[in-house]
């Protein structure tokens, strides 16, 4: 790809609408300084200097889609609680539509609070309910999904699964069937519970740990032949067009029916890996919707994931920085 090709690609993102189905949450940050140890227990005392709430989970995928110039539409559930109100306000503050968000009196909004001192992540506190949504809410989410497909021209659908219960096998089957009928590509960022329920999707993106645990295999990232064999069997059984496995410092593996590629990791000054997977699936969705071949999808997504790891906390990708990074690489000249 030439620099001009890449510029045209990134410009094409501006016309796209991406539907994101999955577990939304609030990423809450408590910033402070540690100067002493508690006399009550051998734990540090943090003197707070600030608090911040950000959109997290599937909502962070939406922020990444937005940062890349496309229009994200969320389909998810929050609690009818104070945190749910905060979440909706965060959507408004970030100019994101809320019509696909359903509030439930039977669940609480997921909040992950990270306690950070001098850019060091000291502790995380999770407030959540992770059981699958009840059948009535499942039907409501299915109907919301259909209405969103009717109201928008959707270019790709992302399942952002954090095992918090918003995604069920019934919702997956319903959404994939509708997407396949309409010729809309589907992408999955999976977790353990529903790992084998995404039959028929276009693009499946676990990390290496999720892949081997999901298949209950003893794989090592250094053995490429084992990974390739497992990938072939998985794609055949699950009818998955493209499999991309992220492998941290080992890079990225991607395979479709015709070919496979092992792409080395980018050398980065890593500050925080939180949210990198959200960025990778977001970039992958837009590149796939634009018609890029798998190896180029993987290379651009790999760069994007590395770039966000250079920043502390969960942050969306910067489109201009990513484009410049892509254009500077020999592989795209």
What do you see in this structure?
The protein has 333 residues and is of the alpha/beta class. The chain has a single domain (3-23, 60-86, 132-332), classed as UDP-N-acetylmuramoyl-L-alanine:D-glutamate ligase. 38% of the residues lie in helices and 26% in strands. Strand 8, helix 5 and strand 9 form a beta-alpha-beta unit. Helix 1 (3-12) runs antiparallel to helix 10 (319-328) and helix 4 runs parallel beside helix 5. The N and C termini lie close together (6 Å).
Q: What's the N-to-C terminus distance?
A: 6 Å
What is the structural class?
A: alpha/beta
In the sheet with the most strands, the strands line up as 5-4-1-8-9-10-11-12-13
Shape: globular
Q: Main sheet? A: 9 strands, mixed
Total domain modules: 1
The radius of gyration is 20 Å
Which oligomeric form is depicted? single chain
Number of helices: 10
Features:
333 residues; alpha/beta; UDP-N-acetylmuramoyl-L-alanine:D-glutamate ligase; 9-stranded mixed sheet; 4-stranded mixed sheet; 10 helices; globular
């Amino acid at each position: 790809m030439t620099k001009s090709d890449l510029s045209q690609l990134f410009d094409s993102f501006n016309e796209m609408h991406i539907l994101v189905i999955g577990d939304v949450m609030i990423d809450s940050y408590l910033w402070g300084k540690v100067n002493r140890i508690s006399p009550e227990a051998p734990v540090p005392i943090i003197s707070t200097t600030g608090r911040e709430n950000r959109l997290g989970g599937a909502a962070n995928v939406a922020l990444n889609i937005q940062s890349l110039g496309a229009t994200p539409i969320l389909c998810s559930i929050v609690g009818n609680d104070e945190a749910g109100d905060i979440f909706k306000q965060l959507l408004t503050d970030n100019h994101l539509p809320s019509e696909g968000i359903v509030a439930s009196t039977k669940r609480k909004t997921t909040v992950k609070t990270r306690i950070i001192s001098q850019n060091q992540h000291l502790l995380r506190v999770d407030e959540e309910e992770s059981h699958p949504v009840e059948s009535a809410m499942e039907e409501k989410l299915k109907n919301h999904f259909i209405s969103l497909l009717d109201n928008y021209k959707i270019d790709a659908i992302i399942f952002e699964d954090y095992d918090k219960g918003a995604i069920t096998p019934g919702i997956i089957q319903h959404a994939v069937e509708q997407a396949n009928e309409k010729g809309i590509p589907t992408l999955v960022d999976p977790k353990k519970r529903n790992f084998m329920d995404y039959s028929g999707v276009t693009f499946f993106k676990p990390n290496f740990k999720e892949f081997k645990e999901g298949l209950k295999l003893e794989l090592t990232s250094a053995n490429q032949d084992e990974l390739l064999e497992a990938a072939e069997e998985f794609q055949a059984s699950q009818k998955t067009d493209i499999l991309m496995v992220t492998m941290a410092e080992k890079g990225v593996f991607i395979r479709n029916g015709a070919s496979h590629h092992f792409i080395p990791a980018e050398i980065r000054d890593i500050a925080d890996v939180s949210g990198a997977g959200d960025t990778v699936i977001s970039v992958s969705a837009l590149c796939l919707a634009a018609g890029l071949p798998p190896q180029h999808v993987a290379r651009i997504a790999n760069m994007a994931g590395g770039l966000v790891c250079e920043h502390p906390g969960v942050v969306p990708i910067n489109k201009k920085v990513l484009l410049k990074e892509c254009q500077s690489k020999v592989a795209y000249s």
